[in-house]
């Protein structure tokens, strides 16, 4: 499983992800069920940290956020 | 040893002074931050090297030693989708330290309700890899913020 696949899985799978948007340092995602998000698995996938506010989950991945987001979009399509 | 220079003139506030936990908790690396002087200006390359990432509101320059320095212009500025930022260089360009990379106006960012504070981060550096880190005081653009061994 590559990094993008691992992050999708840790976010509860493709069906749980409503939106994913990269910023310079993080992926900003909106999920259906925040409870399906596994912070430990996100960190195991290489995230530096995870910040949550309800169904909005920010996964801190550093400046590769834009390339990771496009890899994740490919998985979601 | 990489000397990392301030991309903007202003007042150094340290990473702890950035109103965003990713920077304040040094999640992507240690460094410092500068509250920029208000008014039109240009943010400069903090080191000589190659621009490996260039967003309107943030960029990463990697130097010859492989040290990547992130400059992030303001907080939540990704939401502006480039409005108010003008790119003066391109991704992949080689730049000199102090060369202008993005033109912007911190006063306009602030007027839009966002903090214009600029985080300058040593990506993936250990906390003890930096020395002489400025945490306060006024700086000119191009003044040294820290050294990275």
Automatic annotation (TrEMBL), chain B:
Coiled coil: none annotated. Keywords: Kinase, Phosphotransferase system, Sugar transport, Transferase, Transport. Gene3D superfamilies: Glucose Permease (Domain IIA). Pfam families: PTS_EIIA_1. It is found in: Cytoplasm. SUPFAM superfamilies: Duplicated hybrid motif. Residues 20-124 form the PTS EIIA type-1 domain. This is PTS glucose transporter subunit IIA. The lineage of its organism: Bacteria, Bacillati, Actinomycetota, Actinomycetes, Streptosporangiales.
